[in-house]
Amino acid sequence: KHLSLQTKLTICILITSAVLVGLSLYLLNRAWQTYLRADEIYRLSRGANHFILTLKDLTFERGRTNVVLSSGKSVSDADRIFINTRRKTVDENMSKGIEWLAGVDQSLFTELNASYVELKNLRNKADKIINSGKQSSAGNKLPEEWFKQSTGLIHEIINTVDIIARRQNLPGNFENYFRYLIYTLEFRDRIGQAGSIMTAAVSKGRKLTPGEQKEFYGNLALADYHWSKIEVIASAINDPELNRQKLSVQNKYYELYRPAL
Q1: By Cβ atoms counted within 10 A, which residue in 44, 116, 134, 247 is the most buried?
Q2: CA 151, 153, 157, 163: dihedral to nearest 10 degrees?
Q3: Which residues have CB under 8 Å from 256's CB, separation 6+?
């Protein structure tokens, strides 16, 4: 049962990640084809896309690292390879996104870059366990610190994309498209947090603690809230392609994963 739950969660998150990438490319394509401000919107979409790709892999890095640090078990080669692969793509896309942001807003750049540096420093602590292949120490605070700090960076990236987009006075439906994108990012983050909490407990062969249960179901409730916002914006846009993407996530998440909880 536990293995089935983890498999269903992985499938669900992979699909939502694919939707995020597809949506960002779709936004970019519509900008070129539809609006007179195509160059300006293209630059915004291209810069935001670096951060979207960062988030896709950072959520996976956050989750697997949390499981490894929390498990109290020896780190497998597969886990080390998975984490190192995700880190590489996170760093490649984050570097491009930060470079773009430096030319847009120095204040946002300074804040986000500082948070990113802090995360990289925390990675060095995690590496002592991840790259050693040894068991993690029971009762250490590193899993909690890692999860909190990586989640904070994810939220900061989402907020940065949101702030830049709001400043653009986007024409036509583009404001709705970016609202849709932000709500999708927030939805993806919340189901990722819930999944990480559940998977970390499963890896230890135990049930969720009362505190974990509260956090787990709190994240699911927030995911549902963001999904309700996605539904409203999707109805306002009334675009067949976005509706198709939304239906794909809805079927996999609400019909495959959630009933298993």
Answers
A1: 44
A2: 100
A3: 8, 11, 12
> Are 58 and 153 a contacting pair, CB within 8 Å?
yes
Work out the average pLDDT over 169-182: 76
100, 109, 162, 218: CA torsion to nearest 10: 130
Alpha carbon 109 to its chain's center: 20
Cα 200 from Cα 197, distance rounded (Å) = 5
Shortest CA distance to 191 belongs to which of 65, 22, 2, 15?
Answer: 15
CA distances from 85 to 61, 67, 78, 107 (A): 9, 16, 11, 30
CB contact at 8 A, 198 and 220: no
Specify the pLDDT at position 119.
96
Please check the confidence at residue 251 and state whether its pLDDT lies above 90.
no
* Residues 90, 196, 23: CA angle, nearest 5 degrees: 50
Provide the greatest CA pair distance for the chain. 59
Number of helical H runs and strand E runs in the chain: 8, 0
On whether the pTM is more than 0.85, the answer is: no
* Sequence-ordered list of residues with C-beta below 8 angstroms from that of 255, at least 6 positions apart, any chain: none
DSSP state of 47: H
Give the integer Cα–Cα distance in Å for 213 and 197.
9
